[in-house]
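Table S2 (continued). Query chain:
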Amino acid sequence: MSAIKYPNGIKPAFATQSSETHSGRGMRLESDLNESNKYYRANDIALIYKKPTPIQVVRVDYPSRNRAKIVEAYYRTPSTTDYNGVYRGRYIDFEAKETKNKARFPLFMIHPHQVEHLKKVHLHGGIGFFIIRFTLYNATYLVDSEKLINEMYATNQQSIPYAWFKEHGHLIPEGFNPRLAYLKVVDSIYFKEERHNGK
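Corresponding output:
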């Protein structure tokens, strides 16, 4: 695997990983997004799926010829992001994160390989973004990947203030169907010309 090249040769603060575990974090956000995507698919609005998490199978028991049972396996680091698909003829790719921190978003939650992947999505003409939820405010923001990545490189801090997301992010409307109407935000950011032309 080739080394990641950082601007000016400086490793940004977000590339320093924390040893703190976050098992189960983001499960409510994930559930909301999965329900929203199910609604979008059922109504032929968009075709967006959660990517499966790669696992490394270590040991399998075979109690009988037709019954295999995985008894030991480990999660591998996901190779890219959480969700991808197609909307209005464009490729969509995004990462979703949830934090209980009420003042700041910790940057170690976003991995360098996810940053590199979203940079490639933009390079090839796709739509890439982050969906960030601050659970204590029950506020979920969509932020363009380029905008957040630029801020990640620019800061010398290990986190980005909540106020930054309020200013630069787009609050996602919540409801029943879809649970998170994030494609309304996508329309307002990435399909401005079509919207203004009444398409």
